[in-house]
Request: fold
Amino acid sequence: MAKREWWSRMSNFFMEVEGDKRIVLSGCQGICTYTEECIALRTPFGVVSLYGQDMEMGCMTAEGATVTGKIQRIEFGEEA
Amino acid sequence: MVSQLLRWFPGWVRVEAEGGYPERLLNAVTMAQIAAWNVRRKGESVRFSCLAGDYRALRPLARKACVRMRVRHKHGLPFWRHRYRRRKGLLVGLALYLFVLAWLSPRIWVIEVSGNSVTSTEEILAIAQQHGVVLGARMDDVDVKGMQIGGTKDTPTLSFITVNPSHCVARIEVTEREQSPPPLDLSQPSDVVALRDGRILQMEVYGGQKLVKVGEAVTAGTRLVTGRVETEMGEQLYRSYGEIWAETRRQITVTVPLTFSYTEPTGEVICQPTITFLFWKIPLYSKLPLQTKSRQYQASHFLTVNKTVLPLGVTNTYQMPVKTVTSTRTEEQAQALAQQQLAEKEAALFLPESFAELSRHEGVEDGVYILRVDYLCRENIAVEVPLDGQLP
Reply:
């Protein structure tokens, strides 16, 4: 049952990178950090950290988020 | 653009959250199914936009996240409506505008006719009117198919007619039939007689039997060609036609009175403006008839957009009362005028270079200048009449 739920969550997660200007994430589970240079989002994989300048969340819902700005780095890591 | 419009109707606010844990607030916002957009960190504060109706639901979430919230900007219809709540006229004007827009948009404002050269525009408009193409009528009510099928039925000069609706412009396009010359009717026997006295110079007879020869003198009504032709099988009846060129004498008399009367404007001008909108004409003057004779002319001033004349404008009718004035002209003036009238008559009566002046008599008799000129002409004197008939 737990495995099925994990697979369901995994299959819902989606990340689309449009150059260095825009990233669309769906299936994220919350915000860990939000500063001008870094937005860290909790996902089924762990934490996805987006580093850059003028970072802005264009749209934020329970299903996903759109991050815009001058994106310089994407990091995947475990939640602290 | 669409999303902006969808947000504008319920209204939205720009919120600034300071202190505490803004991330917690944003997580709580998403968990509470509240849509937030344009989320931006600005130093210690986070700014985001949300629907005006959701702002009340944000307060407990902000308290839990230890965040102070305040509204920076308000946008959308509810705030706009609140701002102008005392200006009822604005709302009435907007409603009126929407009503007029909805009422006039589907209607015909302009009718354009193209493709006609022989058939008059008025005739085409009359046909179009039968099929619903009228200023102010609804474009949907135009019977395009019916016009295409039945529009040319009563107008032999047209081979095709249609109307192309283009927004508020009904473009009527026609194609005209190419007229071929009617076939010569040879079934009715006829004769050719002389129209006037003369001496025959040349004969070109295409039907019938000649009764005269070149060089013969004939009088008006003389039968020149007969349709009764004697053949081996007896008398046969044919249609007679052709050209009989003869030397004739003609006279033109022009009279110009030395004393004459004419009308001239008194100097007074009465302007009668009429406002035209679609098929409505609103006169801005009293319709009492004028006491004196007057000349009138019209000047129209209509709105135009991209060379398309809109049915909205003013037509000014200028009435200029006139008075009768008696005047005299000198003999020289009368002579010049007579000469001018003579030239006009010559152009109307004779073919170019087919006449020569024989004699000229001119003078004043009983206060009238008379110019009488005799001509020697070369003209076709053949006139077709029914068999054994006379000149009409």
